[in-house]
Amino acid sequence: MTSTYHIGLLLSRLGFSGLMLTHGIPKLMKLVQGNFEFSDPLGIGALPSLLLVVIGEAICPLLIIIGYKTRLAAIPPAITMAVAAFIVHGSDPIGSKEKALLYLFAFSIMALTGAGKYAVDRNRH
Description:
By secondary structure, this protein is mostly helical. Helices cover about 70% and strands about 0% of the residues.
């Protein structure tokens, strides 16, 4: 693979995961502060829902940014965005779910391609 391929993977990891953190960090702070109020789209309870979203929107994107276990780390954000697009915004117009769908595609692609060579674990694919 060419170095431009690996730079593309790096930019994708940094861009999408960095932007996802703008959603995840406030939820992480909410959790740390003891505020467990959150929507429950799957019927598992507010606290488990918040914990899963923090994993998908804060913890895993940090792992992806550094390139550690990227393929595995990309799965929770993809699932989180699938829930956002198809359950939380399921009956909304496409414009309301577009951002979640873009993230879903981006993290799905990362799960398939891996981090590339500019990563902590230097996974080639």
